[in-house]
């Protein structure tokens, strides 16, 4: 059964955050709130975590995973950014955007897009995930919590606990966090291509 952490949306309890981090570090898969919608997450050094996310969401290996980062210093360890791309991303970050960028050697090969050698990155604004990332000390490998037969992501922590109780290890609930996934901007070829319009305004990249 998944553990259930009911935390304050602005000032989450450190004990609950600490317990969630321990679950991540011990190979667990969690559902947690972001500034766009709920996400599934695991640690970067958890090979089984990626496969569990693919199974839960019924996705194939072509799925672009996202490294959810605490700040630009962390993000810069995992993707290559030139000055113009950095400025464009900095202008809307933190926020509900995911950026597809060429990966550095710090990213495990199994997490890369097979052909492009890219990975998704983002810096969210939600206080709960920011505290989670701060306590974790490294990015969280993530994917939007959108189930295969659903038209929209789940927004209620209790519903996630009820439906996924035996396939994930914890749910962090801080109340509703939105229905829309992130806006995805692909910089694989050095210029922006909006591949999904979501919670973030796409106009700066069009």
UniProtKB/TrEMBL annotation:
Organism name: Terrabacter aerolatus
Lineage: Bacteria, Bacillati, Actinomycetota, Actinomycetes, Micrococcales
Name by which UniProt lists this protein: Threonylcarbamoyl-AMP synthase
The YrdC-like domain, residue ranges: 14-200
PANTHER family: DHBP SYNTHASE RIBB-LIKE ALPHA/BETA DOMAIN-CONTAINING PROTEIN, THREONYLCARBAMOYL-AMP SYNTHASE
GO MF, one annotated term: double-stranded RNA binding
Pfam families, sorted: Sua5_yciO_yrdC
InterPro entries: DHBP_synth_RibB-like_a/b_dom, Sua5-like_dom, SUA5_domain
Gene3D superfamilies per record: DHBP synthase
Signal peptide limits: none
């Amino acid at each position: 059964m998944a553990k259930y952490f009911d935390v304050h949306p602005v000032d989450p309890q450190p004990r609950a955050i600490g317990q969630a981090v321990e679950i991540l570090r011990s190979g667990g898969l969690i559902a947690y709130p972001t500034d766009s919608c709920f996400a599934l997450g695991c640690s970067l050094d958890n090979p089984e975590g990626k496969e569990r996310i693919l199974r839960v969401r019924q996705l194939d290996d072509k799925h672009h995973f996202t490294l959810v980062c605490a700040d630009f210093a962390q993000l810069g360890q995992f993707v290559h950014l030139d000055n113009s791309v950095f400025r464009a991303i900095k202008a809307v970050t933190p926020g509900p955007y995911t950026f597809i960028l060429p990966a550095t050697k710090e990213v495990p090969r199994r997490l890369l897009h097979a052909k492009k050698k890219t990975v998704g990155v983002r810096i969210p604004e939600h206080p709960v995930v920011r505290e989670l990332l701060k306590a974790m000390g490294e990015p969280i490998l993530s994917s939007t919590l959108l189930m295969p037969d659903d038209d929209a992501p789940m927004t209620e922590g209790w519903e996630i606990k009820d439906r996924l109780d035996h396939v994930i290890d914890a749910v962090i609930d801080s109340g509703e966090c939105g229905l829309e996934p992130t806006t995805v901007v692909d910089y694989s070829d050095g210029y922006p291509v909006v591949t999904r319009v979501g919670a973030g305004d796409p106009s700066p990249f069009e």
